[in-house]
């Protein structure tokens, strides 16, 4: 069977670090119409669809490659302990961010950290000309109704963000990003600190293969009303 990454190079995000995050993300959302008309394109998509249905494909997708787990094992217990000091501390260190992202994948909630990372990158835009295409991609990927990686936002925040998307500012996604940050800090972060992979790192053990599990329930902003986390990372 042909390698699906050769058939669909846009899926191989890590293969070319020079490619823009937004070009890759957008290519995953919308397929160019003319591609479907090419001979054999439909057959190739069918073969990829069958591959995606195999359990081993999804397992490797959520757990990451063995090399990534080996890399996580190089984290010192002292460094891992610091991640427990605050959520800001965890996200500010690349190894901590990577470990937390892997944990969210086991809970099928990685869209939250991916949205947060996309917003951080968005705020690094150098010119106003860069904002519109980036804002459109973030909105279509994470915020609009039935987006492929839709994050959980309250109605007011989603509406306010939607109204500003056509003339985006550097602060367009701040409210939505803060909301998702708070949900992760109050919900996912405590569970991460109690997880076996994290506790093994603290104890200096090699991380075991995590077990995939569904989220126990869907959290909303109302679950954390009255909580005022410190968003010093911004």
Automatic annotation (TrEMBL):
It comes from the Eukaryota. InterPro entries: RGS, RGS_sf, RGS_subdom1/3, RGS_subdomain_2. Keywords: Signal transduction inhibitor. Residues 86-202 form the RGS domain. SMART domains: RGS. GO terms for biological process: negative regulation of signal transduction. This is RGS18 protein.
């Amino acid at each position: 069977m042909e390698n699906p990454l050769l058939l669909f190079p846009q899926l191989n995000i890590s293969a070319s670090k020079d490619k823009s995050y937004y070009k890759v993300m957008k290519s995953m959302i919308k397929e160019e119409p003319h591609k479907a008309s090419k001979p054999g394109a439909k057959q190739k998509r069918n073969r990829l669809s069958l591959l995606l249905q195999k359990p081993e494909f999804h397992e490797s997708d959520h757990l990451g490659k063995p090399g990534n787990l080996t890399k996580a094992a190089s984290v010192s217990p002292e460094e891992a302990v610091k991640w427990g000091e605050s959520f800001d501390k965890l996200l500010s260190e690349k190894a901590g961010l990577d470990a937390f992202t892997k944990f969210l994948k086991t809970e099928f909630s990685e869209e939250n950290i991916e949205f947060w990372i996309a917003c951080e990158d968005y705020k690094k835009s150098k010119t106003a000309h860069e904002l519109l295409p980036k804002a459109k991609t973030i909105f279509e990927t994470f915020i609009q109704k039935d987006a492929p990686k839709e994050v959980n936002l309250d109605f007011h925040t989603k509406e306010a963000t939607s109204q500003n998307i056509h003339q985006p500012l550097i602060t367009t996604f701040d409210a939505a990003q803060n909301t998702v940050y708070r949900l992760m800090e109050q919900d996912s972060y405590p569970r991460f600190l109690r997880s076996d992979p994290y506790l093994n790192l603290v104890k200096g053990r090699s991380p075991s293969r995590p077990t995939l599990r569904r989220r126990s329930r869907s959290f909303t902003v109302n679950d954390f009303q009255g909580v005022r986390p410190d968003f010093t990372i911004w």
